[in-house]
Amino acid sequence: MFSYCVDPKAIEGLMWLSCYVTTAKHMSFYFSFLVVMGLLSLAAPLAMAFGFAGATASRSTYRIIRSLGKGYLAMIRGIPDIVFFLFIPIALDQAFEYLRHKVLCSDVTEPIRQGNDFVVCTAAKLPLNTAGEWVHDIYGFSLALLAFGFVFGAFAGNVLSGAMAAVPKSQIETGEAYGFSQSQIFRRILIPQMWIYALPGLSNLWMILIKATPLLFLLGIEDIVYWAKELGGIKTGVYEYPHPDWRAWYFGVLMIFYLSLTYFSQSVLDKISARLSQGQATMAGKAS
Amino acid sequence: MQSCFQTLSDYGLRSIGYGERLLPKADITLCEQFVLIGSGMIWNIYFAVLALLLGFFFATVLALGKNSNLPLFSAPCRLFIFIFRGSPLFIQFFFAYDLFVLLPRLGFDIDLGFLVVTVETRWLTKAWLGALIVLFFNTSAYAGEIFYGALRAVPSQDLESADAFGFTGIKKFRRIIWPTMLRLAWPSYTNEAIFMFHATTLVFFTGFPAWQQKGDAIYYASYFADKTFNPFVPYPIVGFYFILLTLLIIGLFGLMNRRLNKHLPTNERKRLRFNKYNLIR
Prior knowledge:
Chain A contains ten helices and two strands, in the order ααααββαααααα. By secondary structure, chain A is an all-alpha fold.
């Protein structure tokens, strides 16, 4: 980075440190913070979409759709989310490859599961063997994103269905009395009124989403945890910048990063909640 | 069926070091997956039960501290709760492990009267103690915040009646404030307990090594998923065990909830129900 960094062994003190924290690997480390932010900004709307679908399905008049929706919302209550984070990416990967195998290589008659192997033809591999490194990265990240969307969708679905149930019955009945159709009631009465009830749950959800982002590491993505382990480990004299075990420092930095992120989010969410409570017939609304 | 009993005796206690030393490698049967993952559940239950038991008392202290008028008490409690609730448990595990590794390896003799136990700092780098401490602090912080909220919600009439009857100090807390605080906090605390059980699955994915492949349920599940390349069997098995465990927790906490609400008229009692949970931490 700097011109004096050519021979790091010759410099020390702050100069050494300034060279150390600007190495190419450290740049990847800083970039991975952006990956976390990217995941947050993509996973949140995706989870909302999943959650909305789940909550709507659990109120459906068709029994099959309703039980599917209820099952989706209930499963997250009993099963740890890590199980889903480990299960969904690999299951999706195999499902995609299975489908592609069936479509692209219909002439292959050998079974796909041979003992402990999962064999698909070369053309069905995802991503293709010929694909570049970045395609693999994007593919891995998308699978992780889907897993996040699915798990947090179930959480969001619980919040939203609770909020839908909290909208006073008389509001719905008034809609019916005015001759609204079911979908009109849903769109014009239920949805606009539900947000204020959903807000506390959704802000809570945002906080757990933030705190779930380091789980990207489990999905084999080079995220901040990966780089903190990688950079913090003992570096012997053969390395350009030898240092003892600094992992505790790196994870300390991650702790501070997450603490400031949650602290900042909390203060913003408190403001939004105060804003939305204004004029509402609730205790918070009356107080102001 | 006979061979499944054999598997049970070989691997039933594998996670705590009894039975067959080598894990199944080839021709993995459904029975082996069920038994070994079930054996791993011993660790999940060990971590969660101990962390919750110890955390319950520490959480009460934290809640009282946070509620104190003296900044000397309230500031450290606030900070503790903020640190453990504001950062991911996953990072806390890594951070704690890497700190514990840096500690000098020492041994302290503790005289229990009838025998002398040597407490060694290197135990902290083992999951059974190190991870337990992290989980204990974590659940204390979350439960502390729940108890603090409940403490603030204790009706002022209750306190006034306590004063009128001449209750003071410890007795007032023990007989009036504490039971009401627990009653109000109980549904959220049940929630926290369920989350604690779920959180134990993180332990062996962080720095803490699974020594001699003694791991928890999800450690074995991911082992099987790696070996068979088939995630559709081991992960649903873990899910099955955890659903059973969750129902058990709700049942047990429901009994306690009934006891806490016993004095109330029936229409004011809150019931714990599986589908009424807002399972969010």
